[in-house]
């Protein structure tokens, strides 16, 4: 297996950059910061978790609606990098601005978080689509998995720095408040994300595209409409998207709401941060391992493994009582979360025509993001009805079961699938 090319390495490095947002803002520090602000404002634990779930649903709904449209336009020559850069800048800017929101303004925190989340997820749509530009079909599993692996490993550096500042402020070693320490973590995240995105901005370019034409926006809507009408004719692609809709819902919900869930169980902030750090360290090698095993056993079989692990996670979550229980749950998640995401991305990339990558990844996004609306809402509603967060997590098991059943009917991607899917 030859070494990674400059374009492949630069593409992989963006996961190293952006994953700092995923762990510090989406998963660890911001949820705890927000939960503390909401609690101080008199919001109950169950309601504050529910409001976070509703916020995630709103952010994903926004991107789900605009993703396919922008993706279709971005298939024209020169547009992919522009759209990526816009959403990347939006995410970095509002991540930085979180540090300047007064800690008692919990609602404004959620508003800024929504914009930052749209920026992060939006940039990932076009980043994912660049996979077809930077590597060959034979190397997609390895490159995609290496991206997630490097993302988990790289994110531990700003995460260690952030939790060190927070813990030192908690025990009085640093003469700053925990609130200020958390805001410093937001600044670190924005700077890390911005700095290490430079290789992709410099070295990755759109190789596959549709030639520009008059009225690109109007013609993009026509192509999008045609794709929506015809996508059901392409069995492998449609079935995979349907399976992905269900199982990635559970994956995303568990990742984004795990910290709030642990907090509701009574696990201390310090323990949660340490658990999340170890989760990142463990997840990196496992993501790379999934990529290598996929080359031996196929990506589909390894997706079965990942989904099965998540089914166990959902069932086990219903019986959590102690911090050790949460540790076991976190390690189970760490073993599969990167692998299932990486192989899903590579599997889909093999099914689509390269010149329409943005358009099709727009659909990949809309299926994933609409699913991400259902999961947090399911957890939020269940938590409010039962008064227990673990019941909400347990309810996600049905999504994984539906996903794995549908995936069983998806054929392995072939060159014929790609040619047949060339709708434009």
Primary descriptors:
18 helices; Growth Hormone, Chain: A; MFS transporter; 424 residues; 0% strand
Count of domains: 1
Q: Which CATH class is shown?
A: Mainly Alpha
User: How would you sum up the major sheet?
Assistant: none
Helix count equals 18
User: Which band does the percent of strand residues land in?
Assistant: under 5%
Count the E strands: 0
Commentary on this structure:
It comes from Rossellomorea vietnamensis. This is MFS transporter. By secondary structure, the protein is mainly α. It has one domain (6-204, 220-420): MFS general substrate transporter like domains (Growth Hormone, Chain: A, Up-down Bundle), CATH 1.20.1250.20. Helix content is 81%, strand content 0%. It is built from 18 helices and no strands. The chain is globular, with a radius of gyration of 20 Å.
Which helices and strands appear, and what pairs or packs with what?
Blueprint: H1 6-27, H2 29-40, H3 45-74, H4 79-97, H5 106-129, H6 131-134, H7 140-170, H8 178-195, H9 198-203, H10 216-230, H11 235-264, H12 269-297, H13 299-317, H14 323-351, H15 357-386, H16 389-395, H17 397-407, H18 415-420
Helix pairs in contact: 1-5, 1-7, 1-8, 2-3, 2-5, 3-4, 3-5, 3-10, 3-11, 3-15, 4-5, 4-8, 5-15, 7-8, 7-12, 7-14, 11-14, 11-15, 11-17, 12-13, 12-14, 13-14, 13-16, 13-17, 15-16
